[in-house]
Amino acid sequence: MPKMKTNSSAKKRFSLTGTGKIARKNAYKSHILTKMSTKRKRNLSNTSMVHDADMGNVKRMLCIGK
User: Fold this and answer.
1) Which HAMAP family has this protein been placed in (predicted)?
2) What is the C-alpha separation between 3 and 31, in angstroms, rounded?
3) Cβ pair 45, 29 in contact under 8 A
4) Per-residue pLDDT reduced to its tens digit, 9-66
5) What pLDDT score was predicted for residue 1?
6) Residue 23 backbone dihedrals phi, psi, to 5 degrees
7) H-run or E-run covering 9
8) How far is CA 2 from CA 5, 11, 66, in A?
């Protein structure tokens, strides 16, 4: 049986934390930022955690676990 291939786009977008959670970047931070407040842009710069409902799909793309 061949090895499972990691999804190339997923490995660029997600990272695994030390506790086993999966971190992601927030959307709406790429262009047309002049109309956005500084506070909102600053808060979007931080990373967020992947929601529990999406965890299975993301782990499957990253070949984590079973």
Assistant:
1) Ribosomal_bL35 (MF_00514)
2) 38
3) yes
4) 999 999 999 999 999 999 999 999 999 999 999 999 999 999 999 999 999 999 997 6
5) 84
6) -95, 150
7) helix 8-13
8) 9, 20, 15
